[in-house]
Design brief:
Blueprint: E1 2-8, E2 13-22, H1 24-33, E3 45-55, H2 59-72, H3 74-77, E4 81-86, H4 90-105, E5 110-115, H5 118-125
Length: 135
């Protein structure tokens, strides 16, 4: 999978465009790479754009591999941010909805929500629509 990241300091957002087959290793690697970005700040919101991706992650990947990494990185990443999951396909929507519920149950340090439309993401993350050109 390929993940292209753009950090928007003005809107406090990390935009991640995913393509191809998405595995848990890709997500973890992308999260870890954030800390090496000069523009990264704690508690930045994130948009994960999966519209061109096929999600190949299951519940055990999340509970056994992803959640422990996120918990370990809380001090660096922060504990008060939002994650917007942007999807197109119904299959990815269903999988993402399951992950949303699981994240809420797992007391993750972020709020996660799933979107199909850009305008809804912009509104939810309170992004200035006139200042974005990356998605």
């Amino acid at each position: 999978m390929k993940v292209d990241s753009t950090i928007d300091k003005n809107n406090n957002v990390i935009y991640r465009k995913c393509s191809g087959n998405v595995k848990i290793e890709d997500i973890i690697d992308s999260v870890n790479s954030s800390f090496f970005e000069k523009s990264f700040k704690r508690n930045m919101n994130a948009i994960w754009d999966f519209r061109d991706a096929i999600i190949q992650i299951d519940k055990s990947d999340l509970s056994n591999r992803f959640y422990p990494v996120i918990k370990k990185l809380e001090k660096k990443r922060g504990t008060d941010y939002k994650i917007a999951i942007w999807i197109l396909s119904v299959d990815n929507y269903i999988k993402s909805a399951v992950y949303q519920v699981l994240s809420e149950l797992a007391t993750m340090p972020f709020i996660i929500s799933i979107f199909r439309y850009k305008d809804d993401i912009v509104k939810w993350l309170e992004i200035d629509p006139n200042s974005i050109d990356y998605f």
